[in-house]
Task: structure prediction
Amino acid sequence: MRISIVIPAHNEETLLANTIRAALAQDYPDFDVIVVNNASTDRTAQVAGPFPVKVVHEPRKGLLWARECGRQNASGEIIANLDADCLPEPDWLRTGAGFFRDARVAAATGPYDYYDGETVFRQGSLLLQKTAYWLVSRLIQSPGIRQGAILIGGNNFIRAAALRKTGGYNTAILFYGEDTDTAKRMSTCGRVIFSNRLVMKTSARRFKAEGTVRLGARYIACFFKTIFAKEKK
Result:
């Protein structure tokens, strides 16, 4: 089962190289890496260039424009999404691929570990995700509810066929709510698994820049707004 790792990058010259190195160090036998240079004005493309990865360019700024560009250039049966500040462990692909032996699974995801965050925030956030996120994702997929799922944007695996079936990514969304929208549509194609075995190290830089309470509240508001949004006919 071939996997395409897609890494969107907008002005990520500082962190991108480490993410690419971690992606290339996977102990999985069949994968490729696609870096999407998303309207960058810094040296993002030049940083990615020397690595054995495919660099593609998306001039329309927006995370889902970048993810969609990566999807269209992917050859894998599974698309694995990383953000440009993520550091996957070497067994990340192997662990994620294992869930897709079950044909009913459309996507798989797991929690973030904010490796450069303060200890209390780092451990508290990880515990919250491993318990509440896991529970909520199962609950909203249960019979009688079926209202979507939880998908961590920079730490997920999706069947390429399921993405094609639902028309690809929703490029009308620039950033907030993009993972919930994708999860909601993937849940119509099969199960979305939230596994605590798929822990992803990532930066807490957005929380540091905007404030933990403020950014956390924004994420929660976008989640509920997207989950309960009515489908357009």
Observations:
- The longest strand covers residues 31-38.
- The CA atoms of residues 11 and 98 lie 33 Å apart.
